[in-house]
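Form 7-S
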Amino acid sequence: MPRPFPALPNAPAAARNPTVTTVHGVDLHDDYGWLRADNWQEAMRAPNRLPADIADYLTAENAYYDAAMADTADLQARLVAEMRGRIKEDDSSVPRENGPYAYGLRYDDGAEYPVFIRTPRHGGAAETMLDVNVMAATQDYFQLGTTQVSPDHATLAWAADVNGSEFHRLTFRDLTTGKDFNYHIPDVASVAWADGQTLFYVRVDARHHPNRVYRHTLGTDPATDTLVYTEDDTRYHVNVSRLRSGAYIALSTGMNDENEISIIPTADPTATPQVIEPRTTGLEYDIEHQGDAFLILTNADGAHDFKVVTAPVATPARDNWRDLIPHEDGRMIIGLAAHKGWTIWTERRNALPHICYVRAGAPIEAARSISFDEQAYSLGSDPSPEYDTDSFRFTYASPTTPPQVFDYDLSAGTRTLRKTVEIPSGHDPANYVTIRTTAPSHDGAQVPVTILYHKDTPLDGTAPCLLYGYGSYGATMPASFSANRLSLVNRGSVYAIAHVRGGEELGRNWYEAAKFAGKLNTFHDFIAAAQKLIADGYTDRGRIVIQGGSAGGLLVGAVLNMAPDLWAGAIADVPFVDVLTTILDDTLPLTPGEWSQWGNPIESRQAFDDIRSYSPYDNVTAQAYPPILVTAGVSDPRVTYWEPAKWVARLRATKTDDNILLLRTNMTSGHFGKSGRFAALEDAARSYAFALKITGTDLSAG
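Output:
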């Protein structure tokens, strides 16, 4: 049975500063709202500006974490060494041909960050475009954002975030001299080149809302840039991109379940953006350009699992949309790519992806698909950046198979393996078993569950299990490969992913069934997955550690309240747990766009009651909880640090057990933790050491 992990004496106790807010006639009591700094926007950019009382509390929690986990220091070091041993230190990507060059990146031995390189297409010496290690050398945190080469291959636009706040600074590099231009553009969210001298970019405002599109001429003062578009609706976020044909810039503005796209011809970058189809409640679409038509992936006309239509370039409005790939229930089209002579799309059936393709102009009945044999796997579609080509690239992986890169000849229908990710310390897929099963939920829905275990692990209920879930925004959890997970699986743990409602594994309805009042389905599905694992002998009650991050942290928090005695423990990474308070606050950068997901509790009493019924912070009760590890980041713009901090404070003051409760806040980074391919292993090692400790796992293997 699991070993206890009792709380240490003198756990931090956050000060109570009771406040009452009345919404829809309901009094909301909050003792810990003071943890939200009045200058949170300033602190996001400069974490050292956090008020002293808040910083002192978070620091005290970090010290408590360090003391509680001190006896795992050697284990964490071994875990980091194991995980690093599975990373090829001197590695490189498969080059991508684009114009006169083949582009790629490499990792030098021991380097945290990549070096972006290119080689003349027909032979010659490689040249370094950007060595990220040099850029990151003086920073505690460094995350590269966009890297976009101009169409004439003369200039690199690159952006970086140096504190985890996701405010990226855009820089231009002359690829002939290797020198950066002597100016920058701050707070850039996305970039698209029109030609060798003209670039469109989106800037975010002080609330981290990407809402303004500018046109920039290379070498000119950004203060003189032309404002092309401003989005006034705070629910909508703006993005710019260049279509693969190179003929158009797409200006997209949208929220979770609704959007609008305008186009600007690259031949005339000063042209007024032309709207494809005005925003309409519930209408989603994305576009590709092919010849004299746009190909449009859309849910129009009740196509809840999406279809592909065509529209003339001259008259692309919805009245002129004609079906190319009709809608089919249960077959969700999740991606579309157009080459000059080919239409390629990715679809998902029964929680598994497939790649399909057809010649441009051919009847859809002539379409072909690429098949795979394993029970559970993941696919990555990676179309060529070139428009006129018969070559298509995809990546394949499964929980047992490391990622493989294939080039596919669309004319011949043949695939060529270009790379299999090497595991230097060794990996034999035959030593592992991947199973796809289904778990009956509370209402009869069959929830897919992906299971990975070592072939020697006994399936008699004695194995510990780490069960992972997400379940929001239609995000699908792929059955992919993770070298890090082997450190658990090799020690006899079962690793499982619950593909709960809220994702789109089984189509759009799988997602829609967990919105608004249906959100409880996500949590019931996760509990059902755990019960299925127990019933089938993979693990047992009280031996399951649960993990989820961001909205997956909401899932963790909710099921901890609903079924605390089912779990051995929980890991909640940057968890979205103060849901009601956040969705009531329309001054936060993401909130207005979230109302289509959760409901608008400001205007709707029903939405208020729905969210209040499951919001983890609002449903903490005087009951026993298992050991819990919570993480946060001071500069996180997605889940602000005070959500996990408030949750931990309320849990510690309310729960009736003496199990450990830990909050570890990264004081210098944001939502995604440490940057760098090796530094990030420390975060994984901390989580795994916690899981191994609370399940009493044999720590010597790996």
